[in-house]
Design a protein that fits this description.
The protein is an all-alpha fold. The protein is built from 7 helices and no strands. α3 runs antiparallel to α6 and α4 runs antiparallel to α5. The chain is elongated and about 50 Å long. It starts with a helix and ends with a helix.
């Protein structure tokens, strides 16, 4: 009886999880970006921080955002859903702001970051990823009855 109470109806369970179906691919891509952005930022900060401190700190910030998005997308529950939305919105804002600044003020960005030029160095995936993430989150938003519990 406990198992039945712990498990919501199949349709509701599908809406309240983000780590099924295409969500697994999304989480995998976020995981790859978390690893690559962390490695890149770590290397840049350790070896040539004085050349472009702002760009490298923004790379480190992007890495943290990707890590948070990866973890929160993989977790079920309303709180993790909210964390996912916040992380993906911060990511989108970061890509748009850093992308724009890297075009308008190239002096501050002598070396590329993950989000420079809207993610050009990564095939513009950093620009597309938060859009796809927000669409996925919208489609998998917690149902109102479940969220009220």
């Amino acid at each position: 009886m406990k198992d039945q109470q712990a498990q919501p109806a199949t349709g509701e369970a599908a809406r309240n999880t983000r780590n099924t179906g295409p969500g697994r691919l999304l989480i995998a891509v976020y995981g790859v970006f978390a690893i690559s952005a962390t490695a890149r930022a770590g290397y840049q900060i350790l070896t040539k921080f004085s050349e472009a401190p702002l760009a490298y700190l923004l790379s480190a910030f992007a890495a943290l955002v990707y890590i948070l998005a990866t973890v929160s997308l993989a977790k079920a529950g309303t709180t993790w859903f909210k964390v996912s939305v916040a992380a993906v919105l911060v990511e989108l804002a970061g890509v748009l702001v850093v992308g724009t600044l890297s075009i308008l003020d190239s002096v501050q960005f002598p070396h590329e970051t993950v989000w420079s030029l809207f993610g050009r160095g990564y095939g513009f995936i950093p620009l597309l990823l938060p859009i796809l993430g927000l669409v996925w989150l919208y489609r998998r938003r917690p149902s109102r009855a479940r969220a009220a519990q």
